[in-house]
Design a protein that fits this description.
The chain has no helices and 11 strands. With 128 residues, it is mainly beta.
Length: 128
């Protein structure tokens, strides 16, 4: 699986961005069977969980820091997962990564070690 994240940029506090992650999956396994996650990392810090959506698309999980401001969604017809980020704050500044795996159970959604496939990251900077 290859993942290509995009949509990052510079935005003022209180603004919005939408990140996209397009997946190229191997034949024989549909995109809809992959759980998709978003993580972020600040230089010098551990990569942290942001949000994830189960393969079924019916369950989403969010880090407390982004709950109520970020929304994860997916379009299986386009092999794409999105992260809509509203009311952005300076402490949201980070490189954002998308990740996927076909075999994640709900209890490990927040663990980066549960994801086998990673995109290259897209920089989000929130600053006035």
């Amino acid at each position: 699986v290859q993942l290509q994240a995009s949509g990052g940029g510079l935005v003022q506090p209180g603004g919005s961005l939408r990140l996209s992650c397009v997946a190229s999956v191997a034949s024989g396994r549909a995109f809809r069977s992959y759980t998709m996650g978003w993580f972020r990392q600040i230089p010098g810090k551990e990569r942290e969980f942001v949000a994830a959506m189960k393969a079924s698309g019916g369950y989403a999980n969010y880090a407390e820091a982004v709950k109520g401001r970020f929304t994860v969604s997916r379009d299986n017809a386009k092999n794409t997962v999105y992260l809509q980020m509203n009311n952005l704050r300076p402490d949201d500044t980070a490189v954002y990564y998308c990740a996927s795996d076909p075999s994640i159970i709900q209890s490990t959604l927040r663990s980066q070690t549960a994801y086998a496939y990673w995109g290259q990251g897209t920089q989000v900077t929130v600053s006035s």
